[in-house]
Amino acid sequence: MALRRAVGVLWVLGYAAFWFGCRGGGPTPAPSAPAPIPEEIVSFHADYETCGTCHRTIYLQWEQSRHAQAWRSETFRVASANYTRTECLSCHAPDLILRTGLGNEPALRDEVREAGVTCITCHQDPHADDWAMHGPYEVDSPGHDSIANPAYQTAEVCASCHGGLAEFDQYNSWKEGPYGQSEFPCQACHMEPRKGWLADEYQEKPQRWYGDHSFPGAHVPEFVQMAAVLQARIEGNVLIAQVENQAGHLFPGGAHRTAVLRVFAREQLLGEERFSYERNNRIPSGQTVERRFPLEGITGTIRVELRYHRVIVNASGDGLVEEPEGILIAELTLERES
């Protein structure tokens, strides 16, 4: 518990440094008026690997991310019924999110879909006829025009794909919760601040704060383990378990994910409660739910655990199953005398 809170404090301090580093301690510059859209808009989707030439560290982070695997993930292939569920496709191989507007569902692009959500997807200016990238800074870049966009310091840049479908409504539940009310954005947790060179090839430039582009989330055990806190006590013939959601959005965050609260006595299952989108009982951000399990006639060691399970592709490759072990978030033992 103390470790989790300490890590939380470090995130807050790190993000504060990132925030003020981006803003330079002064007012955020207003975005420039968009230029007229050219008759033929140049597309750089096929050139996404070019970004790694200069931004090597950030590019290597992205390569390890779920964004990079968004289209070619076997789980997505099966969940989308071999890419036939059209409502799923555009966020797994999106066109420029700035073309359709932040918060609006992006269009499905026609090329290099296997690259998933790329640097081009999130950063390219839709009105430019040459390389021009949006981000939290306006810098003197020899490789392309650089446009300081205040949205890249807010959760709005995440909203296009994480706020549309009810199955993946992290942005909306964030906005309604305490993190959203305090304007503590998604990036504070999912893009942990780091300091270094934005472009590795140009180390004569000053180091700056930037977000980790590996986007840790449900696939990182250490990250998931900080999403919730488990407490339990025995009152009479009842075990009372409490699960507190410390994440910035609903817990679990989206469909195909289940948090399971289980109670064991002598390694025999006494009862369980499953929290998921499919059951319509996810826990809102900052809230605690309580579940009661009868212990009539049960003595000795009682074990309570909270696990997080994703879905994975089954052995035959044509369906989805819940991963058997999942991620252990927390485990408690209590003793009950006769």
Brief synopsis:
With 338 residues, this protein is an alpha+beta fold. It is built from 12 helices and 12 strands.
Main beta sheet strand tally, sense and closure: 5 strands, antiparallel
Overall spatial form: elongated
| Class by alpha and beta content | alpha+beta
Would you count the extended β strands for me? 12
Number of helices, where a helix is a run of at least 4 consecutive DSSP H or I residues? 12
Radius of gyration: 23 Å
| Beta content | 15-25%
Average the pLDDT over all residues and give the rounded result. Answer: 88
Order of helices and strands: HHHHHHHEEHHHHEEHEEEEEEEE
Give the terminus-to-terminus CA distance: 30 Å
Fraction of residues in helix: 10-25%
Would you identify the regions where 5 or more consecutive residues have pLDDT less than 50? 1-35
Can you describe what's shown?
The strands form 4 sheets. Strands 7, 8, 10, 11 and 12 form a 5-stranded antiparallel beta sheet that branches. It contains 12 helices and 12 strands. The chain is of the alpha+beta class. The radius of gyration is 23 Å and the shape is elongated. It has helices at 2-23, 51-54, 56-63, 74-79, 86-89, 97-100, 119-123, 159-162, 170-176, 178-181, 187-190, 221-224, and strands spanning 132-135, 145-148, 193-196, 208-211, 228-235, 238-245, 257-265, 268-276, 288-294, 300-313, 320-322, 327-336. The longest helix has 22 residues, at 2-23.
